[in-house]
Hints:
- The protein is built from seven helices and two strands.
- By secondary structure, the chain is mainly alpha-helical.
Amino acid sequence: MDSHLIALKLVFDGVQTEVDVSTLEARKLLQKVVYLVQRSGLDLSYRFAWDEMGPYCRDLAQDNRELARNVELDDLSWEGYELQDRFDSALESVRGLIARKPVERDLATHDWLELLASIDYLVYVNGLTVEEAKTSLDDVKRHLMHDYPAALEALRAAKLVAA
Length: 163
């Protein structure tokens, strides 16, 4: 297993996320985890562009498929490796974002992370205000907008979006 795939596996383990590419939802989850981990301070050198489901990286999609194949083949070459301690805060930040998912509604984790990553991308990368981001997302992610206030609060708590 290549070193970048080992790092990716360690990141997914660090945020307690299974490497699964069997469904669109699972693939979306992996994309958003890596986007948010990078925004939290652990640069894995993936570059994201806007997609209908939020930030997306074609190279990451390919690496996720390759990593999933290695995991399916019981490739354990990642064992014995660990990320440097200085990256613990990035992993903790994303675990915290996942934990802040509203529990009063039956919101899937992949949808929660799509909303978080989309808001962050529009504000951080595209330079929109949080209100402009809300207006922009209202048209394309209406099914998630009920949770916009909670997502914005979570991003502010993680210091990804200014208060």
